[in-house]
Amino acid sequence: MFLALKDNPAFDCGFICCLSDTDLRLKKPKRRLQYNGMREFFAALGPIWHDLYHDKMDRMHDPASIDCDIVFIQQPWGMQDFPRLLSGRILSAYLHYGFAIISNDRMQFQLPDFHRYLWAYFAQTEAHARTISADKNETVLLPCKVQAVGYPKLDGYLIPANKNAGHGLWPRSLSKTRKRVIFAPHHAVGAATLNMATFHWSSPTILDLARQYPEMDFILKPHPNLAHAYKNRKNYGGQSYEQWSVTWRNMPNCGVFDSGLYFDLFNSSDLMITDSGSFLAEYLPTGQPIIRLVSSGAQPFNASGQQLNDAFYVADDSTGLQQVFKQIAVGKTDPLASVRQDKRSLILPFDKPAAEMIIDSISECMERAGPNDSPDAKLP
Fold it and tell me: Is 73 in the same domain as 178?
């Protein structure tokens, strides 16, 4: 989305950097380190217009320092009143940070100081837009503010993938024949969460599989909150997250990818194993098989997720994971290949890139408003 705006001469575009809620939990030295690393990542893509965190003073800046026309926001964590603070001065447009397939209405479109103050909510599909617009909660957005455009993060799937671009991310990067497996564990564990995490039983199983099949490469792609969630927990192998991670990193066929853009990793892999929600949808367009790890009592799929449900292999315990892994990765049997292909259009519903559709929508709205009028108007 940013690159599309940057390349359009009608727009001037920059970044606003803010601490994530994950970084807020860290001690000061590590918090500063994390923030500066994040800032460097975005600075490599474009100009940093505002810092909402002062790393030397370890304090947040007032959003009143922001001066622009529209702010695109990707998530509410750590900033659930951000659109309200900008309201009346700057327009807030929302692009939800993950492809929403898990039932989690409050976080996705019902936060009282967040969603109701948005100027625009750019939804991923028509199904998502209908769900949001039909909501009867008092924080509901006006239907004119919700528009289905696709998911900009997935625009890269609309062009042929370069499967060689991510080879350098793998432990045996020079090999073209090794099967490559992504393990992407979620962090939500416990009754007060979405309860999707299976790391307590899946992590020792994945480690065993990496030992059993040294001819395969494995990459850990953890949720950013995973280490925090399992800080005081042990898995079924009796290891803490830190102990397990040390063992993993010392395996010659195992690696870690824990920051940055990950679609080159996706496109260079042969299989994903995950208990995440969004990754189930984000990985599906690769055409490669997906093993969904299921936690007892996990939050169910929403309507969009239910449409994708039969495209995934499922394991709900260690034995099930080993069985389906041997079927898919070792036996090279993939009966769901055609199902995944049929479901692709549910994730990529438009032929036009989502970023272009958003830019067209904003441009049309601005032209209709006129040079001296507020652009706070209905979307096309």
Answer: no
Helix axes of 199-212 and 318-325: crossing angle, nearest 10 degrees: 40
d(CA 329, CA 309): 20
pLDDT in tens, 258-301: 888 899 999 999 999 999 999 999 999 999 999 999 998 899 99
What pLDDT score does 141 carry? 58
Strand partners of residue 48: 15
Residue type, 180: R
Count of structural domains within the chain: 2
Query: Which residue's entry shows tokens 């652009």?
Result: 375
Q: What is the mean pLDDT of residues 74-96?
A: 89
Q: Both 144 and 189 in a single domain?
A: no
166 within 8 A of 264, measured Cβ to Cβ: yes
Query: In whole angstroms, what is the distance from residue 100 CA to residue 332 CA?
Result: 30
Task: Tell me: do 280 and 295 sit in the same domain.
Answer: yes
> How many alpha carbons fall within 13 Å on the CB side of residue 286?
22
SS3 of 303-342: the string is HHHHHHHHHCEEECCHHHHHHHHHHHHHCCCCCCHHHHHH
What are the φ/ψ torsions at residue 137 (nearest 5 degrees)? Answer: -65, 150
Q: Is residue 180 part of a domain?
A: yes
Do 38 and 140 have their domain in common? yes
Distance CA 112, CA 204 (A): 41
| Whole-number pLDDT of residue 143 | 54
Length of the chain: 380
Q: What are phi and psi of 251, to 5 degrees?
A: -80, 135
In a domain, 217, yes or no: yes
Mean local confidence (pLDDT), 165-183: 89
Contact 320, 292 (CB under 8 A): no
- Cα dihedral 75, 261, 12, 17 sign: positive
Residue 73: strand pairing partners: 94
Residues 308 and 323 in one domain: yes
What is the domain range of residue 302? 163-347
pTM of the model as a whole: 0.91
Residue 376: inside a domain? no
Token readout for 375 is 């652009």
Task: Please indicate, yes or no, if residue 377 is contained in any of the structural domains.
Answer: no
- Is pLDDT at 176 greater than 80 in this prediction? no
CA angle 252, 257, 263 (to 5 degrees): 120
Claim to verify: residue 71 and residue 136 sit in the same structural domain? yes
Indicate whether 48 and 178 sit together in one domain.
no
